[in-house]
Backbone:
């Protein structure tokens, strides 16, 4: 525990106050004892360390980036999603913090036990629905009057969004997210006991001109089997294991046996349909390739080398002159 270090002037002032009677030494001792005691709420038990919370934050920052790309492509609209906070609270407190009517998706994450809650604010959910149906992304709130079609569209959209979560969690554990329930009333959710500690990841979400929150509620029991993988030591070990020389050697060895398609193009030209239909015996088609210019050798349809044609052991062959380098090669 860190302690405050007093300067010489502060020490002199303190001794002067005690000697003059302005401060009682016994009271000072009592204050010091009282400072060592602090309240602890057993209903709000902190079951995750700060290091583990940082690990969850790092994973879901990646998830937010993947989710932004997914919804941008699906909705063809301006979308930004970012992590606002990561907290651990009792499940009952989380339920009280969300609207009385909202979009709730409950997923199982096989092979992990337990379920994950994906809560989407109605403003965000209806902006997504409006864009999906060809609208401008207007936001409304009629959660109590959802039609079967609207429910189906929303549930499918969020089910596909979980592919991004599977990818983000892939560095920690391979999971298969399956939508089990779609609900609008938080009071009907019976995931865990009210006092169970859950991690709540809140995502700031903007779609067009509509904005709101997406909350991911993860019970402790779901993360318990993989909780050791959330620490920074696990990530550092993983990073160091990636740079093994034998892995590089094996990868290079395997790549040497990969087959690729290669072809040397003698030249190209274009003719009209009429000219093509009127082609006859002994007609000559002029190519755009000069006889003195080198040919291009294509590997998997990408130009890789300049070559010149010839023969080797009475077979047609090409000789490589130089490499064609592009911007990526630079």
Residues:
């Amino acid at each position: 525990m860190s302690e405050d270090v007093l300067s010489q002037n502060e020490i002199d002032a303190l001794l002067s106050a005690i000697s003059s009677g302005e401060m009682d030494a016994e009271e000072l001792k009592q204050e010091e004892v009282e400072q060592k005691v602090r309240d602890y709420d057993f209903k709000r038990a902190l079951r995750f360390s700060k290091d583990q919370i940082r690990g969850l934050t790092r994973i879901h920052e990646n998830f937010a980036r993947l989710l932004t790309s997914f919804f941008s492509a699906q909705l063809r609209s301006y979308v930004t999603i970012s992590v606002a906070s990561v907290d651990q609270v009792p499940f009952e407190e989380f339920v009280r913090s969300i609207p009385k009517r909202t979009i709730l998706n409950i997923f199982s994450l096989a092979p992990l036990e337990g379920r994950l809650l994906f809560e989407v604010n109605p403003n965000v959910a209806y902006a997504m629905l409006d864009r999906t149906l060809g609208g401008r992304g207007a936001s409304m709130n009629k959660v109590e009057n959802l039609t079967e079609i609207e429910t189906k569209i929303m549930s499918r959209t969020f089910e596909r969004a979980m592919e991004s979560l599977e990818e983000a969690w892939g560095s920690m554990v391979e999971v298969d997210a399956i939508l089990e329930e779609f609900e609008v009333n938080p009071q009907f959710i019976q995931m865990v006991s009210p006092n169970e500690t859950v991690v709540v990841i809140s995502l700031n979400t903007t779609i067009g001109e509509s904005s709101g929150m997406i909350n991911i509620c993860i019970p402790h029991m779901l993360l318990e089997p993989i909780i050791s993988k959330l620490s920074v030591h696990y990530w550092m070990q993983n990073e160091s294991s990636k740079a093994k020389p034998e892995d590089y050697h094996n990868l290079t060895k395997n790549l040497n046996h990969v087959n690729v398609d290669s072809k040397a193009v003698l030249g190209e030209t274009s003719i009209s349909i009429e000219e093509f239909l009127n082609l006859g015996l002994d007609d000559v088609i002029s190519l755009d390739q000069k006889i003195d210019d080198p040919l291009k050798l294509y590997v998997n349809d990408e130009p890789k080398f300049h070559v010149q044609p010839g023969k080797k052991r009475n077979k047609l062959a090409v000789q490589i002159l130089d490499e064609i380098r592009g911007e990526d090669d630079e």
